[in-house]
Amino acid sequence: MAGYRILAHPILPVEEKYAFTFFWQGEPMKGLAGETIASALFANGVRTFGHHPKDGAALGIFCANGQCAQCTVLADGLAVKSCMTLVQPGIQVEPSDGLPSLPPVAPSSVAEMKPPPEVAVDCLIIGGGPAGLSAGVELGKLGASVLVVDDKHRLGGKLVLQTHRFFGSINACYAGTRGIDIATRLEEEVRQHASVDIWLNSIAVAVYSDQKVGVVRDGREYLGVKPKVLLVAAGAREKSLAFRGNTLPGVYGAGAFQTLVNRDLIRCADRLLIVGGGNVGLIAGYHALQAGIQVVGLVEALPECGGYKVHQDKLARFGVPIYTSHTVLSANGENHVESVTIAAIDANWTPVPGTERTFSCDTVLIAVGLDPVNEFFAKAVEFGLPAFAAGDAEEIAEASAAMFSGKIVGLKVGRALGYEVGEVPPDWIRTGEILKSKPGETQDEQLPAEADGQIIPVFHCSQEIPCNPCTSVCPQGNIYIDPDDIRKVPQYISERTGKECIGCEKCVTVCPGLAVTLVDYRKAGDPIVTLAFEFGKEALRKGDVVTVLDTAGNVLGNVRVVQTRIARATDRTMVVKVQAPREVARQIAGILVQQAEVSAPMEQYVERLTDDMIVCRCERVTLGEIKEIIQAGSRDINEIKALTRAGMGACGGKTCQPLILRAFREAGVPAEEVELNVARPLFVEVPLGVFAGLEQR
Length: 697
Known about the structure:
- The chain is α/β, with parallel strands linked by helices.
- Helices cover about 20% and strands about 25% of the residues.
């Protein structure tokens, strides 16, 4: 059962699951109970799920979140999204080559149609992620009848993919706790309230003019839900990117990667390159290293990464190069990614000739931003259904902000339902705004003075971000962040408190950015440096010689490990003590994980000759086709759709419309001149038989 499965992980438990046989193109393969068809195929080394009927192009996954149809396969003859459909014993899975035929129907079969059942609730919450669950808890406290629908087989949304500790306020949103554990806590909290019902594997497909919401439950039963108030907490979908070879199997979203690696424990890559320096891309790089996957580099078009600097620093000091002011030119290969070519760009975003470099890899992660899944909210407003949005569906931000957003909106929904909840407290609103805020100023790293006979904490976080767990765990009260603005960087205030650091190491292990170290000057000779390391208890042992680096990833030298420790109190984080020369001890911020040769480029860069920058993944429409129509004078995306079929595919234009709008911007067409695509009445494709409530007899 090994294959591409992760059998040991430094953070995630690897559980024994029921194994069974399913079939791919007639060949027997092993699947596990509770995993999707896509994950089962990846676990067996299958990366190509079919070929497009238009040009025969190989197809794989992209979003792994049900937002596109890139991963469609035939399961027992029916076309399904493999990322959303659970694999079953004995199921016959075939690639989606060409256009599928309808399954045969016995002449004697009779189909009976029945009207869909209806359900009335005070509040329907679309999305069981951090925002939806937090709102559900608040409404549950009021006793409101609530229905939470989520399209996954477990609650938590993106929290179930996050192995790292969260930033934010330790009091407001579980800062310092791992996302996977926050998901469990929120689920336990919401299930305590009898008035809250939860439907998993259930997809909201439309909001109708009679103020009902259509929901497909377990892929078979269609129901009409009549809420007094609708709360949309459906999260976000990943943006796509147009470059040569951008639809090859092996090019997919960072969220899809985290789903495969952290939810399903699939080692879905050997070597990868990340495109996008926001928090999603930076965190995905860290998760890859934890899963034993090599990261050849991260590419960011802007001069600076947009994510938290501590995330960027973490990658740098583990040995991952970060290429700012660079772009990806092409993913190279015939039927799957074999290499990727990047280049530097100038101030006009134009690739600089002579800077091209190609890296051998099998996976390219796209992490260039998110779009809110807000179509349900917009349609509810149009039809006069009282509606609210929370989390990423309201505004793209971190999951910590989504939790607090859901808490606030839960009170607003309660008030709209007539419960006596009063106004949202001003300090809640203030905290919510802080949690949503983008990274602030970055200061020069301030190293503390040496102090013989004492232990001195060093804070390797120099950027203003909302985060304060270290202040809450220090038993001496020696760490200070302005309580009115937790975006300030921490300060060591032992002179103010009159207390010395006792070396309890709590600040080291609780820091989400692994950015706190302790330097112990109490004994003669070289000081002892304590730092956090999250790569499993077998990764380092006493006596090992390791390479240490500063915050920026510069090598400081080789030092010896004098102690390692993982305990229940450290929550799967290894505490490592190294003895280091006095002149570099305070600069040490991390231990090298990945050797430099992993990220070395190939001797000669590869140029992809095929100009196949795909904008519409469903219908295989290229950027060149779109630009030609814009240059001819078109200002209507509906016209582009009629001429090229862009936006006519299974995803309903969710992926391609943002790229088409970008093509208009690059052509100098003002946004106000562009007529947007007419949205489909249904936001998710549904078999007609499900709507009719067909039953075979």
